[in-house]
Design a protein that fits this description.
three-stranded antiparallel sheet, 5 helices
């Protein structure tokens, strides 16, 4: 079952909404957290303004051109899978949604890299001293984690035959 204009329109709207949400939260982080962190749950969760010129956990610092190219490749591949490989049927709805959230996360951080040369991070789990991250990172992490679970426990080989 091929995608129709309505489902593509909904996907585009969803990606735009999620990207705007990500960009809005980063704007608020820049505007409100410059003076210092905001404690939400003492010793557990805080908001900290941070810039990240690298990838996850700050690796590969100052390789923005590489990240921009890789992100564009990922976005194009996800779009291609969404439009031409993943059926529109109910069984594949989780994969279609994951394509939307993955694209939104990639685009959200891509905007920062192209516009500023770095990504704004602000979510910090102090309890486990987890590296500071942002909403777009949540989209990407959620998408990849759920994709792994779906591939391991939900979809069978026959389900993926026409997709991969």
């Amino acid at each position: 079952m091929k995608k129709n204009g309505k489902s593509i329109g909904l996907a585009v709207f969803s990606v735009l909404f999620l990207v705007l949400l990500d960009q809005w939260t980063k704007y608020l982080a820049v505007a409100k957290l410059a003076e210092g962190p905001f404690v939400i749950w003492d010793g557990v969760f805080e908001l900290h303004y941070s810039i990240n010129e690298g990838a996850a956990f700050g690796i590969l610092q100052q390789k923005q051109a590489l990240f921009v190219v890789l992100t564009m490749v990922v976005i194009l591949c996800v779009c291609w899978f969404y439009l031409f490989r993943i059926p529109q049927s109910r069984r594949y709805r989780p994969l279609n949604i994951l394509c939307v959230t993955l694209m939104a996360g990639a685009i959200g951080n891509l905007i920062d890299r192209v516009r500023q040369g770095y990504v704004v991070d602000f979510l910090y789990f102090k309890l486990i001293n987890f590296p500071i991250f942002n909403v777009a990172d949540c989209y990407v992490t959620f998408s990849v984690a759920l994709l792994i679970l779906l591939l391991l426990f939900y979809y069978k080989e026959d389900d993926l035959e026409g997709i991969l």
